[in-house]
Amino acid sequence: MNTSINVSNETLIIKLDSPAATLEKVGGKGASLARLAVADLPVPPGFHITTHAYRRFIAQNQLGEAILSAARQAQAEDPATLDRASEEIQSLILQGAIPNDIATLIRQSYAELASDNPPVAVRSSATAEDLPEMSFAGQQETYLNVLGADQVLEAVKRCWASLWTARAIGYRARSKIPPEDVALAVVVQQFVPADAAGILFTANPITGERDRILINAAWGLGEAIVGGHVTPDTFILNTQTGELESQEIADKEVMTVRLPDGTREQPVSSDKRKQAALTEPQAIELSKLGIQIEQLYEQPMDIEWALQDGRFFILQARPITALPEPRVTLDWKLPRQDGKYMRQSVIELLPDPLSPLFATLGLPAWNDAIYSLMKPLGMQDVKLTDFLPEDWQMLTTINGYAYYDGSGFTGKRSMRALMAMPRLIRRLLPTARERWEQDARPRYATVLSAWAARDLSGTATTQLLEGACEIAQIAAEHYTTIQSGILPLAYMSETFFSLVYDRIIKRKDDPPALTFMLGFDSAPIQAEKSLYDLAMWARGHSELAEYLARAASIEVVFAYQSSSSPIGDVESWHEFCRRFQEHLNRFGHAIYDLDFAKSVPEDAPAPLLEALKYFLAGQGRNPYERQAATVAAREQATESMLTRLKGLRLKWFTKLLRWAQQFAPLREDALADVGLGWPLLRRMLHEIGRRLVNVHAIEESDHVFWLNMDELKIAATALDADQPVQDFHAAVVERRAIWERERMATPPVALPPKGGARIWGIDWSFMMPARTDQAVGNTLKGLGASPGRVDGVARVIHGSNEFNQMRHGDILVAKITTPAWTPLFALASGIVTDVGGILSHGSIVAREYHIPAVLGTGVATERIHSCQRIIVDGDGGVVTIGS
Q: What topology is assigned to 9-190 in CATH?
């Protein structure tokens, strides 16, 4: 930080539309406003207080070295150090005195704006802000309706101090911006007491469409929208035709208004709450301004606007930094014209299009498992073909996505299927635990044990493929066993207990029903404690701990998989590797995604090391303490009920509680073992892939997953016979491109979209794991799966390869979460998913971690971008997207 800059008065204060308003002098926001003003766009008049003025202030108060020293002590991933640095630096700045010449120039420029003591907006403008590659939106402060020169000077100093908020320091550290390189300008503009205000996007930030403008509008000042305090109206306009295509008028409960000494929120009058904040002609007029601004910048723009007395003002414009690729539109043609298709149950574990090999090996195994399920139940007398079409398959694919085919439960066979259900239920549910613990799980383990004892490199290719089929089949049978018993019983038992407790037993001050379901030692919780134990052990070995803290996770994995130690303390490194291997042996089969083309922790452990690093750094709550507190709360609540209740209510409470608590941990234990065979199955398929690489049929062993089962059978036979194998290079490239395109689409939860969830005359959409009717706007509705409310920074994670992007305190936004995602819950302050229900993994674990969760929004990963501020209301099932 240069502390000895000498500058002239002309470079301390410059007019808003001055050609001298460069990024270096007036910051990102200031430079953008100057550009708009020069282009004669309707920008409120004002002036810039340049970065030179900020540096003069720092130099004259001799703050430079103290600021840099404090900033260098802050660690980007340690909130406590960020807070300490911020508090120290801001205190220094706020105690400083603005040099007399600068104060005089500010007073003079303020007086020239308008009449005596005009209300102004005082806005921070950093040199690393509102840039195409990084927006830094919301990092520094803005002060509205500032009156009088003395208040302007005070607001300027507070803006300078806001350059050093904890959030801004951390953001810059993660973006590799040295503290000595940043400075802050301030923009002072005539305040616009808006009748309505909002945000305009010159490309649709939700769908990525470049020919659509999206406008958010609400009454009063725009701060209510930016802060996420109001659901705004949404207007979508076509830039080609200039016409308004759609509008959604929200119930606007609050507005930000001007006061004599600042601003505040107040309720919107009842006659205006559901009235459009913009008329159609006004929306069209505003869109034309947006088009002008996009043409000026030659890129899609995010624009803040205000409307006063029928006149529009542009308050800010910056490039859209996270515009998604335009949403892919696919033809969702139904395999059966009169069919009904749904994405639920096991498909919650398949968020992406399927790999060709899983679609032709895994899916058939699941279809076969439903039939084989009947045999040990003595139900050979029940012929499924009596009420299902002969060619019916339980699971099918549409545009690469897995769907349940409900066609078998419609039409003439519907009544016979319905009549058969009670018989199936009577035989399946009472034996649920026994069938899993004494049959399905042991059979799964036995098959794996037999194949694990084999030398895979010396096994014939056709035998390897047969083994892969056997493991896939036994895994499917394991899942259908828990799906036909443990999973529905877990749902029913908790539902019935909660219903009776809430309706008959609970008093006003009693704990919620959820209290009685938490604290059990399920497999995901055991896995977290195992990782925590490893981190605590490593902390006692200084050289090892220092290496694990500084080395990238992928570097640690490479060292772990090699035979050499990366540190001098070889003994502690080898012991760490042994302990980590023990953890992977116990928990490394947890799946990120059911498709076995996706890695599991055992063969891709880097994401686990990210969580271990946080525990090592002292971040993330001690899982033992968290569980102990939860158990204590549960036992105290139970004892209180047993002491108070009498008679029939005591009987019902005891019986239903015992039933619900039996299946609460069992459900997670059973689901955690779904991928038990995936590590071995993937090794077998990679061995086949390696052999195909050797004969130049594919480029990498991982490409084996892009072949279908028929192709792999032929190739395996050819390999064993030492015959030529088909060249699959072009097919792999084409299929991966198709998969990527399909992945950009959002699969409908039910097909056809209207009526696809109606079977037996009942609309089952309420049981779908994702909403089908999400409205346009900054509010997403879903299932309130874990109570509480949190306002924080979103982190959109698409897969295990992005786990390292998660920061402590972030709100995790994902398509789904499975058991292998549990380490991220130790870091998250909230959870939002596209897919999930009340008993999905995300719901269960979020409640154990006591963090708010809204699941099943359908579109969260499309609408929300990393680093946006969002509010998660786990009680109401609502997510509000801010800036």
A: Dna Ligase; domain 1 (3.30.1490)
